[in-house]
Amino acid sequence: MCAARRPLKSLGQNFLVDQNVIDKIIQAAHIQPDQPVLEIGPGRGALTKHLAKRGGRLVLVEFDHALAAFYRDQHKDNSLVTVIDADVLKVDLDTLLSETSAKWNVVANLPYNISTEVLFRLYAVHNRLARMTLMLQKEVGDRLAAPPDCSAYGVTTVLLGLWFDISRVFIVHPGSFHPSPKVDSVVLNFIPRPEPRAEVGDEDVFRTVVKSAFAMRRKTLANCLKSTELAKTVDWMALLEVCAIDGRRRGETLSLEEFALLSRHAADAVHTDAVRQKGEPQGVL
User: pLDDT tens for residues 195-221?
Assistant: First the structure.
């Protein structure tokens, strides 16, 4: 049944069929004995059958109900394989990965239509990961390696770059899939860093600053920041001056280190305001 399963366009399914590419991905993943592995979107199982023979526990997250049922039946006698029939964007990854203290290896051929959202969710659990080997649309991969001040540079570049060392493994051409997509793909390795590439102060503030800076790419950095919820607390013009960052610049021109500097000062302002409000008298009844 699995081999004959027709790809569903609604789920962005492009099944990997090139054995040479499959072998290279498995090799690039460097799965260690007894290491837990998470595969997102196993599809027809091109990678799955190899992953089940390596490492330790294998968790498959598959949104296609028919395929999930197939894998559940196929591995019913293997206690190390768990099949989760769900949308990965709705799975609590932190809870799932915290079931063991071991660091996870993530391997996936990510559907093009949700790849950026999945990357953000994996970024949020970077501390539970040993490495990731992901196949993405080449355009998305190019964004992750883009330098500042170019159109490809964006939120994913900055956020993923904070916690991962990212390297290209190889390009995958359309003929390696069924059906063949209209664009090239790329396999990337993501190695979590023990420490962030830059000190950001407060990661919630950092994410807000970064996402806001790119929310309206044609507007200046100052105007983008003024539209954030933090503007109720942070005097952005004064803070930009303290950081020696010209507010007339666009967000895409800032380096990760400049975003980190801005975030640290913003976090300090938020903390100071919270302390001030806590210390204010509440009035007399």
Answer: 999 999 999 999 999 999 999 988 999
What is the rounded CA–CA span in Å between residue 89 and residue 121? 8
Domain-ending residue, one of 142, 167, 192: 192
User: How many residues does this entry show for the chain?
Assistant: 285
pTM: 0.88
Q: One-letter amino acid identity for 199?
A: E
CA 273 – CA 275 distance, rounded (Å) = 5
| Average model confidence (pLDDT) across the chain | 90
Whole-angstrom Cα distance, residue 39 to residue 187?
14
Residue 237's domain spans which residues? 203-275
- Cα end-to-end distance, the chain, whole Å: 73
Give the three-state DSSP class for 3. coil
Sign of CA dihedral 217, 219, 221, 226: negative
CA–CA dist 110, 116 (Å, integer): 9
Q: What residues of the chain score a pLDDT lower than 50?
A: 1, 3-4, 10, 282, 284-285
